[in-house]
């Protein structure tokens, strides 16, 4: 596998920590540009993405989409980055450039483009259908593969950029408000208005420095194509804008826009982890109490209770077990569990010839794609056992952690194999999802939802775990995703509610522990 095969949630070289930006007195040099536009799709990651679904597993909130239009050099990208900087504690953000969606060019068109005679400012130069399709997927919380366009070669590159997981999408381009299919996807529409002389000066500086163009070529293209397109297509599109933003000295407008976005995100927030932790204490959407589920209703594949398995669990549950023994028996148990889970893969008949020249009718695994995805960090403890069973199978990972105040899961990191990132491959892929235990089920719920967003079928997800808490979130998980397979080494009955110490001067947050449980498996395995 190449390095590009393992690109995850953060796919751009312009990945920033927003907390660091907020604490800095000045912006980093690459961002402190008034008019120079960095024509790359950028993912900015701050505090993680909260749940975008309900306890039934249904998507209840789309990504919030902002469309920013304006003339070439008006400062659209700068406005987008100022919005990101001013939002504060936000989840991940994608800045999606219209320039990525220029159409592929024929050899004749390329010759015209290199002579500065091709009209890149006409709406027909942009693949609006692909643009709107990719934006629709991202808005609906699905993954998308965005094309990459090179202004040096005037051609769309063969390999695209994988994007997924943004709660806010900022789309910018001169024609961002010109097409009705795009406008229908926006939650907020902005138009950046700027003086024509300033836009031309910015364009000259940008094209000379970043695209290697000559001043004469830039001016000829501006007079022939850019200015007429602005007058005929770009400027008239401002009537569709909700807000007109000045191209400079626009801090007041930025603050008003950010206040609106933050309010909308707050309205879309969904908190239901307490309902998952001890579901029989809470009401279902129908108004009835969630009943405690029996093992039969949960449809778990539990390993048979052999003397060997009981001995392994005795060592793993004991707080006095040495770290060396703990690691050894964790690897042994994970190997046994993954081997037991192989029964859920498809197999086809196959005849072979034995060394004695006899015919033997056997079977062979017929799954087109198989991969493993671990929920970090305790899920990483199962990876060695998984690799002992599967040779040369790609591994991915998801980082899901609890919010420090309310305990809701946050998606912080996604790194998935190619067979999941490509939707046409994901539909045929079988994914082994690895985590040490299912207690409240919040991390498991989010991980399953991520795989479904990529097109993986429910019945192709095989969840492998050491322990499941029958009184925890497994019952809600099962109701939401009845067709996934769950393979576990054992079942504990109880979940115990507790409180951590105070968090940043506030009251401690609520936590739940499985009893008798295995403790913090990640800490015991890695530390």
Automatic annotation (TrEMBL):
What Pfam families does UniProt report for this protein, alphabetically?
PRK, UPRTase
Against InterPro entries, the record matches this protein to: P-loop_NTPase, PRK/URK, PRTase-like, PRTase_dom, Uridine_kinase-like
Gene Ontology process terms (BP): CTP salvage; UMP salvage
| Keywords carried by this UniProt record | ATP-binding, Kinase, Nucleotide-binding, Transferase
Does the keyword Transferase belong to this entry?
Answer: yes
Q: What is its EC number?
A: 2.7.1.48
Indicate the family of this protein: Belongs to the uridine kinase family.
> What protein am I looking at?
Uridine kinase
**Lineage from the top down?**
Eukaryota, Fungi, Dikarya, Basidiomycota, Agaricomycotina
């Amino acid at each position: 596998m190449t390095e590009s095969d393992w690109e995850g949630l953060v796919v751009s070289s312009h990945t920033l920590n927003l907390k660091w930006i907020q604490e800095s007195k000045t912006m980093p040099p690459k961002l402190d540009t008034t008019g120079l536009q960095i024509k790359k799709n950028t993912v900015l990651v701050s505090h993680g993405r909260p749940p975008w679904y309900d306890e039934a597993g249904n998507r209840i909130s789309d990504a919030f989409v902002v469309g920013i239009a304006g003339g070439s050099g008006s400062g659209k990208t700068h406005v987008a980055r100022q919005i990101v900087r001013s939002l504060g504690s936000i989840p991940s953000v994608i800045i999606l450039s219209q320039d990525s969606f220029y159409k592929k060019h024929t050899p004749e068109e390329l010759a015209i483009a290199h002579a500065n005679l091709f009209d890149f400012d006409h709406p027909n130069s942009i693949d609006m259908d692909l643009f709107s399709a990719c934006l629709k997927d991202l808005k609906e919380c699905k993954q998308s593969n965005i094309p990459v366009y090179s202004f040096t070669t005037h051609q769309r590159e063969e390999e695209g950029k994988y994007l997924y997981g943004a709660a806010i999408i900022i789309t910018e381009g001169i024609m961002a408000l010109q097409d009705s299919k795009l406008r229908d996807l926006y939650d907020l529409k902005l138009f950046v208005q700027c003086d024509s002389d300033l836009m031309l000066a910015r364009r000259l500086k940008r094209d000379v420095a970043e695209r290697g163009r000559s001043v004469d070529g830039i001016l000829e293209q501006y007079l022939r194509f850019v200015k007429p397109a602005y007058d005929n297509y770009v400027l008239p599109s401002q009537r569709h804008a909700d807000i007109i933003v000045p191209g400079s000295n626009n801090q007041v407008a930025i603050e008003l826009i950010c206040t609106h976005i933050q309010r909308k995100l707050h309205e879309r927030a969904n908190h239901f982890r307490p309902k998952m932790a001890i579901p029989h204490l809470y009401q279902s959407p129908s108004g009835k109490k969630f009943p405690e589920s029996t093992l039969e209703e949960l449809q778990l594949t539990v390993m048979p209770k052999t003397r060997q398995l009981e001995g392994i669990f005795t060592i793993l549950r004991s707080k006095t077990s040495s770290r060396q023994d703990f690691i050894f028996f964790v690897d042994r148990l994970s190997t046994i569990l993954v081997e037991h889970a192989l029964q859920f893969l498809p197999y086809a008949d196959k005849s072979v010839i034995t060394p004695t020249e006899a015919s033997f009718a056997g079977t062979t695994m017929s799954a087109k794609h198989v991969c493993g995805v671990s929920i970090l960090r305790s899920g990483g403890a199962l990876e060695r056992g998984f690799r002992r069973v599967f040779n040369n199978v790609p591994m991915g990972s998801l980082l899901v952690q609890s919010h420090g105040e309310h305990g809701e899961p946050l998606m912080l990191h996604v790194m998935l194999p190619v067979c999941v990132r490509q939707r046409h491959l994901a539909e045929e892929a079988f994914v082994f999802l690895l985590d040490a235990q299912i207690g409240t089920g919040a991390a498991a719920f989010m991980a399953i939802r991520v795989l479904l967003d990529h097109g993986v079928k429910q019945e192709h997800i095989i969840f492998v775990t050491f322990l499941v808490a029958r009184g925890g979130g497994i019952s809600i998980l099962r109701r939401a995703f009845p067709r996934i397979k769950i393979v576990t080494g054992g079942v504990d009955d109880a979940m115990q509610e507790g409180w951590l110490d105070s968090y940043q001067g506030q009251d401690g947050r609520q936590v739940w522990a499985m009893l008798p449980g295995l403790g913090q498996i990640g800490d015991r395995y890695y530390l």
